[in-house]
Specification:
- The protein is mainly beta.
- It is 7% helix and 22% strand.
- It has helices spanning 2-18, 302-306, and strands at residues 23-28, 31-33, 73-75, 80-85, 98-104, 119-125, 148-152, 160-170, 180-190, 202-203, 235-242, 253-255.
- Strands 3, 5, 6, 8, 9, 10, 11 and 12 form an eight-stranded mixed sheet that branches. A four-stranded antiparallel sheet has the order 2-1-4-7, with no helix packed on it.
- A hairpin with a 2-residue loop joins strand 1 and strand 2.
- It is globular, with a radius of gyration of 19 Å.
- The structure holds copper (II) ion (CU).
Length: 324
């Protein structure tokens, strides 16, 4: 029995550890392109997440000490792009949404781009399986057990070279102010688009999230069966919305209506359950921060302690995985 218990403990540890990850392999239409970090910028954070006030630091753009990758991948609208996990990880096992942001390379060269310009959001995934409070802590999320963050390049993105930043936010510690951010940037050239207008709304990264944003201080440890939040800014018109706030629509990818006609309102869409689309009535001028609008402050944090939520951070940091 002792052996069994020890084994179970080890297995538990292993699976927690594999839940930590970053992304280094690019997929186009589910086929791996090149090797590790051929198109995705290598950084020095390893598989550890970014947390707390670190999201305000410059390194939040493409992760710690990110270096230009050797190649730029050319894709066309309609191609499915995936950011696959690094270090042998094979599945996201933290609960939370995924986001994909893009910024146009200012000099037309994504290898040289520093990401200091404006970013727009091309994709958002939420909940793909309607369930209960328990499933909201694991397999309700669209990204659960998938080994890559993926989206279909929308027609509404004009031709050009871009930095594309894919992100997963793990919410298990969010009630205690410790949402975990996993992200990396790829260098991608879009070719064959008919779009001409620059997509909006836009934001800066860092700056897309404030530490107190409701979406990243949400508690999974109460009775909630949905996640009625959209982290950051709304998805551009024609961009991809996968799943929904309560998962009742299933694992569906639909084109976001976007904020068309209402310019670049940076307000957070807190009505995701109603429609995977535009923020209601946003007419604000483009602004680099998203602190306006209906953004609240830590609305769900207090319920956590009452529900006996676990400590915020992951414990399994000891098991090492080679980064070489
Ligand atoms: Cu973790």
């Amino acid at each position: 029995m002792k052996t069994t218990a020890t084994l179970s403990a080890l297995i538990g540890l292993a699976s927690l550890t594999s839940a930590h990850y970053t992304f280094d392999k690019l997929l186009v239409n589910d086929v791996k392109q090149g090797g590790d970090n051929t198109y995705i910028r290598k950084h020095t954070r390893g598989y550890m997440p970014t947390k707390g006030t670190e999201i305000l630091a410059k390194d939040f753009t493409c992760n710690t000490n990110a270096q230009a990758a050797p190649q730029v991948m050319t894709v066309k609208p309609g191609d499915k792009i995936g950011f696959q996990q690094a270090f042998g990880a094979n599945g996201i096992e933290h609960p939370g949404p995924t986001q994909v942001y893009m910024t146009l390379a200012k000099n037309g060269d994504s290898k040289k781009e520093d990401g200091s310009g404006d970013w727009f959001k091309v994709a958002q995934s939420l909940i793909c399986k309607a369930g209960n409070a328990e499933s909201l802590r694991n397999d309700a999320w669209c990204s659960w057990k998938e080994n890559n963050v993926n989206f279909v390049m929308p027609e509404s993105v004009p031709d050009g070279e871009y930095l594309v930043r894919a992100e997963h936010i793990a919410l298990h510690g969010a009630h205690a102010g410790a949402a975990e951010f996993y992200y990396a940037c790829a260098q991608i050239k879009v070719q064959g688009s008919k779009a001409t207008a620059a997509p909006g709304p836009t934001t800066k990264i860092p700056g897309v999230y404030a530490v107190k944003d409701k979406a990243i201080n949400f508690s999974l440890w109460g009775s909630s069966t949905s996640y009625p939040e959209i982290p950051g800014i709304p998805v551009i018109a024609g961009g991809e919305m996968r799943g929904s706030a309560d998962g009742k629509s299933g694992d569906k990818r639909v084109a976001a209506a976007g904020a068309s006609g209402s310019s670049s309102a940076p307000a957070t869409n807190n009505n995701a359950a109603a429609a995977p689309a535009a923020p209601s009535g946003g007419n604000a001028a483009p602004a680099p921060s998203n602190n306006g609008g209906n953004k609240g402050f830590g609305g769900n944090t207090s319920a956590a302690a009452a529900a006996g939520a676990p400590a915020s951070s992951c414990k399994a940091r000891r098991v090492k995985r080679s980064q070489s």
